[in-house]
Specification:
Helix content: 25-40%
Strand order of the largest sheet: 2-1-4-3
Oligomer: single chain
CATH topology of the largest domain: Translation Initiation Factor IF3
Largest sheet: 4 strands, mixed
Structural class: alpha/beta
Strand content: 25-35%
CATH architecture of the largest domain: 2-Layer Sandwich
Distance between the termini: 35 Å
Radius of gyration: 28 Å
Number of strands: 8
Number of helices: 4
CATH class of the largest domain: Alpha Beta
Length: 168
């Protein structure tokens, strides 16, 4: 849980270390003087380090500051690799259900590993298994691109799909 950042009148200490809007250290001043300078610049006085003695406060635009902080938290989310498992004898409808599930993962920004497991003597029909994976990949072609083409590991054939890059 993140601590709430104090700003303007929420700051309770009588003395603060002040950093002005240009980033220059002003020094130790009274809280009232810091608030007055922030008001003159039409900005906010924000406590950036409450643990310092006296606390360090900076004059800045609160809206921009909170937006950047939120943006940094959102981009911090790591891309995960989700696994969709298919069987060699999957039906068309079941394949469509798996495609919809994979689409949800791709839209969230995750990678998807599509894995087809061969059971028993099915392994002799690798070409048919590869065809199923390619069909899955073609159904996802609008929103995903193939990062790693079909590879075989033991009794498993798999491919990896990633979200398409946006051309902005």
């Amino acid at each position: 849980m993140e601590k709430r950042i104090r700003r303007n009148r929420e700051i309770r200490t009588p003395k603060i270390q002040l950093i002005d809007a240009s980033g220059e250290m002003v020094g130790i001043v009274s809280l009232e003087e810091g608030l007055r300078k922030a008001q003159e610049d039409e900005l906010d006085l924000v406590e950036v380090d409450p643990n310092a003695s006296p606390p360090i406060c900076k004059i800045l635009d609160w809206g921009k500051y909170s937006y950047k902080k939120t943006k940094a938290l959102v981009t911090k989310r790591q891309q995960e690799t989700k696994v969709i498992r298919l069987g060699y004898r999957i039906g068309e409808h079941d394949l469509d259900v798996k495609v919809k599930k994979a689409q949800k993962f791709i839209e969230r920004g995750d990678k998807v590993k599509v894995s087809l497991i061969f059971k028993g003597r099915e392994i002799v029909h690798k070409a048919l298994g590869e065809e199923i994976l390619r069909k899955f990949s073609s159904k996802m072609a609008e929103i995903a691109e193939t990062e790693k083409d079909v590879t075989y590991t033991g009794r498993e054939a798999s491919l990896i799909l990633t979200p398409k890059r946006q051309n902005a």
